[in-house]
Amino acid sequence: AQKVTQAQTEISVVEKEDVTLDCVYETRDTTYYLFWYKQPPSGELVFLIRRNSFDEQNEISGRYSWNFQKSTSSFNFTITASQVVDSAVYFCALSEKQYNFNKFYFGSGTKLNVKP
Amino acid sequence: DTGVSQDPRHKITKRGQNVTFRCDPISEHNRLYWYRQTLGQGPEFLTYFQNEAQLEKSRLLSDRFSAERPKGSFSTLEIQRTEQGDSAMYLCASSFGPGGQETQYFGPGTRLLVL
User: Fold this and answer.
1) How crowded is residue B1: how many other Cβ atoms within 10 Å of its Cβ?
2) Contacts of A106 in chain B (CB under 8 A)
3) What is the pLDDT of residue B2?
4) Among B93, B99, B109, whose Cβ lies nearest the Cβ of A43?
5) Which residues of chain A carry a pLDDT beneath 50?
6) Phi and psi for B97 in degrees, rounded to 5?
7) How far apart are the C-alpha atoms of A62 and B53, rounded to whole Å?
8) Which residues of B are less than 8 Å from A107 in CB distance?
9) How many CA atoms lie within 13 A of B110 on its CB side?
10) Predicted pLDDT at A98
11) Which is nearest to A51 in space by CA: A26, A79, A77, A81?
């Protein structure tokens, strides 16, 4: 079973629209971390945010905001007033503690197209 | 802090050839990870180093894959007798910390095409 599910394969919006990228995860651990990364066409994964399982407070950073809900095992990402530069593939990831390291599980990504 | 670097960025090879990729982590990062990413998928974990010790390699795809991290600095990933199915992006990431859930920082990747 997928540990991280990003059901939206591709989303297209027009510039200045708000867009929410969904992420649902599955874990039996009580302590875990969730991440969002951005992958532009150049290929490099750019870190956006990390949340731990004990902190359900939503976070806002400029035009980006994240909604973490343990009750529904979701960690959704909203971009307000989208811009063309936001076009990229966005990955949600779950980090679980293995016996000697923390292993990342990535979703399959959501490709965001922002049109001018 | 110059970020994680990988070399080469692109590699085209013929089936059956050996290839080696290099990763230079962020300086002083003690943890290093290799991932493989195929088209339309997220990165898939391959192997992990803490300093020079390879502590997890069960996800290396076959015995044709091997990785090293001599002296706990840069790392190499080698694929022997490449097959067309090895075509993918190979990503390296590094992190620093006592073993908690620290953030992994990724390099630009090496895109491999096996003809």
Assistant:
1) 7
2) 42-44
3) 77
4) B109
5) none
6) 160, 175
7) 40
8) 42
9) 26
10) 79
11) A77
How open is the CA angle B56-B66-A32, to the nearest 5 degrees? 25
Which residues on B lie below 8 Å from A108 (Cβ)?
40-42
Task: Write out residues in chain B with pLDDT < 70, as ranges.
Answer: 1, 98-101
The closest of A93, A86, A81 to A23, measured between CA atoms, is A93
Do the Cβ atoms of B89 and A43 come within 8 Å?
yes
Size of interface A-B (CB pairs under 8 A): 66
For A35, nearest residue in chain B (alpha carbons): B103
d(CA B49, CA B67): 9
Report whether A86 contacts A64 (CB < 8 A).
no
Task: Tell me the average pLDDT of chain A.
Answer: 93
Query: Does residue A44 sit at the B interface (CB-CB below 8 Å)?
Result: yes
